[in-house]
Amino acid sequence: MNAKRILITDDNAQNLYLARFLLEQRGHRIFEATTGEQALSLIDREHPDLVLMDIQMPGMDGLEATRRIKKKRDAPPVIAISAKAMRGDRESILNAGCDGYIAKPIDPGHFADNVEAFFSDNG
Length: 123
Known about the structure:
The chain contains five helices and five strands, in the order βαβαβαβαβα. By secondary structure, the protein is an alpha/beta fold. Helix 3 (62-70) links the parallel strand 3 and strand 4 (78-82).
């Protein structure tokens, strides 16, 4: 797999560290944001191939950030990463424009494979 530019947006430092570590081991270039606003700014500056978006964040949540990302020309795919597991949550996440979903807590044994599978499925 070719290295990809991936933006990870999460307000939890441990989640950011784990996701970064697992994806950097595979050679991907990682950018980090802790708010939806930071994610929007980084997308304009760094043009990532993929955004991993936490849904529950203070301020602008991941659903609103995703809606704003998807309004951009050449918007990257957005994969939700969320512990939200209530009935209907997956539907609301996809309706906001997310292209996929990975459940929290992150499974270190499968996380990078799950992210890379998205690239395999979508070019």
